[in-house]
Design a protein that fits this description.
The complex is a heterodimer of chains A (109) and B (800). Chain A is built from 1 helix and 10 strands, in the order E-E-E-E-E-E-E-E-E-E-H. The longest helix of chain A is centred in the C-terminal third of the chain and has 5 residues. Helix content of chain A is 5%, strand content 43%. In chain B, strand 9, helix 6 and strand 10 form a beta-alpha-beta unit. Classes of the chains: A mainly beta (109), B alpha/beta (800). Chains A and B meet through strand 1, strand 2 and strand 5 of A and strand 39 and helix 28 of B. Strand 2 of chain A pairs parallel with strand 39 of chain B.
Chain lengths: 109, 800
């Protein structure tokens, strides 16, 4: 695992998201109303919709394609839907956000 | 009954109804909510006048039948109308029992039976004076609670030692009395009325102890008896009620009876469920369809007083061969008692928490052996077997033949299959098709859970109450309160209206954002994060995460220069698909999000603005070529379409708005299935509205005919503004129109010039703030973060 700096907390809109392009695919970075930061693969477990384009509410995001609601904390689908998406470890230090990216993928290069 | 009959054999009978009350029929068991102010009379009307007309039924309002001539087969009303019959149905109901004490006829003494009684009570309640209700049964307590709500000082007199003693055991009766007293209603049990006193009008009640309780209103709710007078006069067999067999036939084979006036199998009935069953039995008989027979069954009792939950069914007397299981939680005000005989439930009394009533009743009806679950039975369904306290799971666990709606005898399987087969998505539709929760409404929660269970994600609470799980308020209440409390931000709405979540959800936030944009166009700052992605980036998201872009082509008219610009953009950005849309526009599909600003910049140079093909707003105005080219064209339909579109583009609406203008009644622009359409005729412009051609297909209704283009524009704009101000988020015009009524809309828009002008002016005002091209805004840098990744983790950086 390598901690990778992606920018500052202010780069992500509150109750919104941005995305980060990585060798392991696109990652959505989410910021909640109470300024917590989460990251997960930008790929809804249902039909692969870009979660970073959804509406962020509480600690969850609603997928823009078919309204699945995914927990930002666990990556699992809430309500009656079943499925989960891989979450990415995040740390925020002095307002800067870093993601833990898989070292195997990077090392392979 | 007629509903069932018309469904089975719509053409067989020519129907005439005589109604002693001067109005259409209404849901009598909902009188208590009308009295307490929770519902208006209009809300409890079952069939408006239109229904009678549609079915060719002649309704004599305020005609009481005074005689039946069985020889000649005619009936005669008190106003002298005589009508012949082949088959006669008597449904005279019941009359309130008036205790024969001195003073019972004084003005100010009422019964509690029909809307006239309720109106009289409401009038009396304006005095905010003292009222006495005689009778501590269902009706008496509902009347007392309603009068208290209306501001009266209320005392309930009950002759027995505990309230509702026929439906409740003494322990539950005691709890009920406490709950009633906590609402500020005085209760006197073992109270015998000796006389009603007063000089010229009621002044009080004298008990047999000699005590006098002052009151300016006395409501007698001590019971009802079948209204058999007419049948008796006609020489039919009458006992306590009009005697019928189990197919509702009286002693005269051409005369039938149903309702509270009937005695069948030795029983007379006062609760709604068996009465509805009689209706089904009689409809089947008159239609010569299935051989349906009336079978006696116990009906659960529920009290319709908001905040007091009680449920009882079956037999709960003590007995040597009976056992009972009792649960008491005094601090929570809960009492549960299940009476068993041979390990089967024969009676249930629930007080304080009645959610398990349907489950207990189902076990009782099926005579299920409960010995296996005896230890946990009293805790209810959630504690059995799978043991999930999730209410959805509890409903999911119910058997298909479990009864959900006791009033109308609707089981779970019937509701689930109706939802699936008829594609029902709203509570109102389920009520219309199955009648479940359409009477007393206490099972509404269960029905909604079934809908959620059956429809999953397709269950759209916008069509039902409430807005979403973040609030208990429905859309209409939220809209009203936003205006009344002058709430101007989403956090203010959530704070003042006590939202249950910190920042709402994907259902309520877009709705609130729209309501605030609509109500405070100059003051509210649009909340970008509460918009769906399409409205954030002004393009349509596709299944693979790319976008499609539709430039605006006013009225569907384009030019060589525009087409050339589109062709250049398609080449430059390697756009994979170009397609003509149903709304006469050109759609470019498969554009990467990062490319959107550059695509818009190029299109903008050619003069294009956003076509808003993604918006809950004005989409397109489709036109035909009209008088300019067409040999049939009567007016300049293209010109009018362009004019409307240029006037209205950019406006946000509750759901998308699609329009069309056709130059003649051949209607090539298909204006008669649009949200708003215009069909030009020689004499002017026929304005249409409330059509649909999507999930639902519906031809338009005519709003009116106007002479000039200016008048057409004003009426259309006013109509759309009325819709913007009143509709629930995501409801298209036809849904809103169905709710508020077509005539009401015509009245406000066509017949009331002042109001029309006010709507028009408010639309024009809001357009100052709405008519901004979102593409040029974004080309110049607004929301630029949206269109590029926050970071790119490429290999080189990672290796560092």
């Amino acid at each position: 695992m390598i901690w990778f700096d992606i920018g500052t907390i202010d780069d992500v809109p509150r109750r919104g998201a941005r995305c980060v392009a990585t060798p392991q695919g696109r990652i959505g970075v989410f910021r909640t109303q109470d300024n917590r930061i989460f990251a997960m693969e930008d790929h809804c477990p249902h039909k692969g919709g870009p979660l970073s384009q959804g509406i962020v509410h509480g600690a969850s995001v609603t997928c823009p394609l078919h309204n699945w609601v995914i927990s930002l904390e666990t990556g699992t689908a809430l309500g009656a839907d079943e499925g989960s998406v891989k979450t990415i470890p995040v740390k925020v230090e002095d307002g800067r956000i870093s993601l833990a990216l898989a070292s195997t993928l990077l090392a392979a290069e | 009954m007629l509903e069932h009959l018309l469904e089975a054999v719509p053409e067989r009978y020519q129907v005439t109804i005589f109604n002693a009350e001067p109005r259409v029929n209404y849901d009598r068991i909902m009188l208590s909510p009308v009295l307490s102010g929770e519902k208006a009379f209009e809300e409890i009307v079952i069939h408006g006048d239109g229904w009678y007309i549609r079915h060719g039924i002649v309704l004599y309002k305020g005609h009481k039948i005074v005689s039946i001539d069985r020889e000649a087969k005619t009936v005669t009303s008190d106003r002298g109308v005589t009508e012949p019959y082949d088959r006669l149905v008597i449904a005279t109901g019941s009359v309130p029992f008036i205790i024969p004490v001195p003073g019972k006829d004084l003005p100010g003494v009422l019964s509690y039976r029909d809307l006239d009684d309720v109106s009289a009570m409401l009038l009396a309640a304006q005095s905010r004076d003292r009222a006495v209700v005689i009778g501590g049964g269902l009706l008496g307590l509902e009347a007392a609670a309603g009068l208290k709500e209306r501001g009266m000082e209320v005392t309930v007199l009950h002759v027995m030692p505990t309230l509702m003693e026929r439906q409740l055991d003494p322990a539950a009766g005691y709890l009920l009395q406490k709950a009633v007293e906590e609402r500020g209603i005085a209760v006197r049990t073992k109270a015998n009325t000796r006389a009603i006193v007063g000089d010229g009008r009621v002044e009080g009640i004298e008990l047999d102890t000699g005590e006098v309780i002052p009151a300016s209103l006395v409501v007698m709710a001590v019971g009802i008896r079948p209204n058999v007078w007419l049948a008796k006069e006609a020489g039919l067999e009458v006992n306590r009620g009009i005697v019928t067999d189990d197919r509702m036939q009286t002693s005269d084979p051409d005369i039938f009876a149903l309702g509270e006036c009937v005695e069948v199998g030795g029983h007379v009935y006062g609760l709604v469920a068996p009465l509805y069953e009689m209706a089904r039995v009689l409809a089947a008989k008159l239609a010569d369809r299935e051989d349906r027979r009336f079978v006696h069954s116990d009906t659960p009792t529920k009290l319709k007083v908001t905040g007091i939950d009680l449920y009882s069914t079956g037999d709960f007397a003590d007995g040597d061969d009976r056992e009972e299981i009792v649960l008491r939680d005094a601090s929570a005000g809960i009492y549960r008692r299940v009476v068993l005989q041979d390990n089967r439930i024969i009676g249930t009394v629930l007080f304080g928490e009645t959610g398990d009533g349907a489950w207990f009743n189902d076990l009782k009806k099926k005579a299920t052996d409960i010995s296996e679950m005896r230890d946990t039975l009293i805790f209810g369904q959630a504690f059995q077997g799978s043991g999930s306290p999730d209410p959805l799971a509890a409903v999911a666990a119910l058997a298909d033949d479990a009864e959900i709606c006791g009033c109308n005898g609707v089981c779970k399987g019937k509701i689930v299959s109706a939802i699936a087969e008829k594609g029902l998505t709203s509570l109102d539709e389920v009520r219309a098709h199955t009648k479940a929760s359409a009477s007393c409404g206490t099972c509404t929660g269960l029905v909604e859970q079934l809908m959620a269970l059956t429809l999953g994600d397709n269950y759209n609470p916008a069509a039902a109450q409430p807005v979403c799980s973040c609030t208990d308020l429905g859309h209409d209440d939220v809209r009203r309160l936003i205006r009344a409390k002058r709430l101007k931000t989403i956090p203010a709405v959530m704070q003042e209206l006590e939202w249950k979540t910190s920042c709402g959800c994907a259902k309520c936030r877009p709705a609130l954002n729209y309501y605030l944009v609509c109500d405070w166009p100059d003051e509210y700052a649009d909340d970008y994060q509460s918009r769906f992605i399409n409205e954030r980036v002004h393009a349509n998201i596709q299944k693979d995460g790319t976008y499609s872009v539709v430039p605006r082509m006013w009225g569907g008219v384009t030019s060589a220069a525009e087409l050339r610009a589109i062709a250049d953009v398609v080449d430059k950005f390697e756009i994979p698909t170009v397609k003509v849309t149903g709304g006469q526009r050109i759609d470019m599909l498969g554009i990467r999000k990062e490319d959107l600003p550059s695509v818009w910049a190029d299109l903008g140079k050619a003069g294009f603005v956003s076509g808003h093909a993604y918006a809950k707003g004005l989409r397109t105005v489709k036109t035909c070529v009209g008088a300019d080219w067409c040999r049939f064209g009567t007016q300049d339909s293209t010109g009018l379409g362009i004019r409307i579109e240029k006037f209205m583009w950019g406006s946000w609406t509750p759901a998308k708005v699609k329009m069309a203008v056709s130059g003649c009644p051949r209607n090539c622009a298909e204006a008669t299935c649009k949200d708003v359409g215009v069909v030009c005729v020689d004499s002017g412009y026929e304005i249409h509205f409330a059509g649909a051609a999507g999930l639902d297909i519906k031809g338009t209704e005519v709003l009116g005919l106007v002479r000039t283009e200016d008048e057409a524009l004003e009426a259309i704009v006013a109509l759309v503004q009325m819709y913007r101000e009143q509709a629930r988020y995501l409801d298209r015009i036809y849904k809103w129109a169905n709710r508020v009524g077509l005539d009401e809309i015509r009245r406000q828009i066509m017949a009331d010039p002042e109001r029309r002008r006010a709507y028009f002016d408010r639309f024009v005002f809001s357009q100052q703030f709405a008519q901004v091209d979102p593409w040029s805004e974004r080309v110049s840098g607004q929301d630029k973060h949206e269109f590029r990744p926050m970071a790119v983790a490429d290999f080189q950086q990672a290796a560092e």
